[in-house]
Design goal:
Length: 381
């Protein structure tokens, strides 16, 4: 199994190298030429889809805050949604989250994951992030479905007075009062090319629609890099406020406790534990950096594709890999943990599974963020 994971990581490194390489030669040049042609086709399709959606854009009666990005992969949208929802709740608002529920059982038809009191569907029906948010946000309705307009109406009927649209920057059909764009400092501009040549979901000119930028994972790069990113954003979208943030480890909770919603696991207990990292997320490299911040001693990493559907065999393979590497714990993200709730192999493992809980911290504190939101959409304490 170690050979397979090494092969996967080697392939990923090769493709990433192609994206970064300013002076390719030989077969690499031919590969990039093909990707650039596909990039043009992709951007043409995006423009047509955006124009058609904007022509039929719908407004709703309550403020809509979209949290999204312009690059493919993980930028920290879910921790940001959690932070905003909790901040709004503290101030007496009634937020609801509307998410696509990518690859979920309810993605096409739509539905309610949580009514704010109870979780109403399984993880498979809800999707990874919506189910995780439902577990962590008591009192906040969570709805999924490709049709966010229908979800918005349902949420308002449930009493929501502000809507948080998860991954909403490319959902042009619903008018929003504020577009919060997350910029991952470890790869801010997707190699300056759109998919599949780079990682951009839209051209960088789309950033002019932003109402607020939040730089994520700013602690994982040098300060000069953060300044360079800010300078480029000022050029691309003059006058738009920019905040910085980091995704800091808060707890490492043994899986059996986490499963029961017992969030106890001081970071001191994780210090220097030899850990195999197990993940199926958009940015496994950032997860590894956060695990190091938690004090874990990483002896290996198994990284699946984003939204990977875990099987019993995956768990058994992880246990075998952990034993081969001499790991004391197998550590995963909360997003991965929710996808393993119905698997039995974890309970049989003689190597404990643990969940690394991560929280988003905005530099300049949460109050500054909320004041900017008040200013943009006019809500009051």
């Amino acid at each position: 199994m170690a050979f397979i994971w090494e092969a996967v990581m080697s392939l990923e490194s090769y493709v990433t190298g192609l994206m970064k390489n300013p002076s390719p030669s030989g077969l690499d040049r031919l590969a990039l030429c093909g990707l650039e042609k596909l990039e043009k086709v992709y951007l043409s399709g995006v423009e047509k889809k955006r124009n058609a959606a904007l022509a039929k854009q719908v407004s709703v009666e309550v403020p809509v805050i979209s949290v999204g990005n312009v690059t493919a992969g993980g930028t920290g949208k879910t921790p940001c949604i959690l932070l905003l929802a909790e901040a709004l709740q503290k101030r007496g608002r009634k937020p609801a989250v509307i998410s696509r529920g990518y690859r979920s059982g309810l993605e096409k038809e739509g539905g309610v994951v949580s009514d704010g009191k109870n979780i109403l569907v399984s993880q498979a029906m809800a999707g990874d992030e919506p189910y995780m948010m439902a577990r962590k946000l008591p009192g906040v309705p969570i709805l999924v479905g490709k049709d966010r307009i229908t979800s918005a109406q349902k949420a308002m009927n449930m009493g929501a007075d502000v809507l948080l649209m998860d991954d909403g920057f490319q959902y042009w059909q619903l008018k929003r009062d504020l577009d919060i764009i997350l910029i991952d400092c470890t790869n801010p501009f997707g190699y300056d090319h759109a998919l599949p040549r780079g990682l951009l979901r839209e051209p960088l000119s789309a950033l002019q629609r932003a109402g607020l930028f939040i730089l994520t994972k700013s602690d994982q790069v040098h300060a000069v890099d953060v300044m360079d990113i800010k300078e480029k954003l000022h050029e691309l979208a003059p006058g738009v406020d920019i905040l910085t943030s980091c995704h800091a480890p808060s707890k490492v909770v043994l899986y059996d406790k986490w499963k029961q919603s017992i969030h106890e696991g001081p970071l001191q207990e994780a210090a220097m534990k030899k850990a195999l990292l197990l993940s199926g997320i958009g940015n496994p490299g950032a997860f590894a950096e956060t695990a190091k911040e938690a004090g874990l001693r990483i002896v290996g990493q198994m990284a699946f594709d984003d939204h990977h559907h875990y099987t019993e065999e995956d768990v058994r393979n992880a246990i075998s890999e952990a034993k081969a590497k001499g790991a004391e714990w197998i550590v995963m993200t909360e997003k991965d943990a929710v996808k393993m709730l119905n698997l039995t192999s974890l309970a049989k493992s003689d190597i404990p599974f643990a969940v690394l809980e991560i929280e988003m911290t905005v530099h300049g504190d949460e109050e500054k963020l909320f004041r900017l939101i008040q200013k943009k959409i006019g809500i009051r304490d």
